[in-house]
What we know:
alpha/beta, Rossmann fold, six-stranded mixed beta sheet, four-stranded antiparallel beta sheet, 10 strands, 25% strand
Amino acid sequence: MLELQNLKKAFEDHVAVAGLSFTLQKGEVLGFLGQNGAGKSTTMRMIAGVLEPESGDALVNGHSITTARRAAQSQIGYLPEGAPLYRDMTPLTFLRFMADAHDLRRSERKNAVDRVIADARIGNVTGQPIATLSKGYRRRVGLAAALIHDPPVLLLDEPTDGLDPIQKRAVRALVARMAPEKAILISTHTLDEVPAMCSRVIVIDKGHIVADETPTALAESKPGGLEEAFIDLADSREAEPC
Length: 242
């Protein structure tokens, strides 16, 4: 459902993504891990079609992000870092706007809005201006917007950022429920969430893939578990000669 083909991006002399290639199948939840600046968000922005790749391509359900961008984007639900929203709207008006933007038929719109309000658990704030909501609620409104058109591929950049433990548990349950019918790419810094949500882990550092394992296999590779393995992978590239 998602295939990266030697995807590259540089900003002047800084190589952010150095030729990433991997595939993501229906039913997989892929934890996309790396330190700050490793290239995670840049990669997700290229897949989502909001940032032009230097070279390479990504195929979403067979649609190229470089030659068939609109078709590829129609297959993606994207929760970006920071969840940018129209702060003067209410969640309800924002979700209706997003349903219109995705060209949902009139007969589908109400059901779609009701579905994502329930999934994101934002029913008690739908009438409040988004500007007045907490960070956690704004994040959940962004998640609802990513799900509004029921896309087959989800790109979720820090989906539990700002959520309390109960809200995080609800997001994990939602991911588990959606997983069999979707391909889901999740970027997170919260390593203890990875085994709870993900069936596979890719770790990148300086734009390169340094591990592609199951969470269990990666955790068992070091006595200290997933955290020690993650730190060791990052340190190993720091030690490489230039």
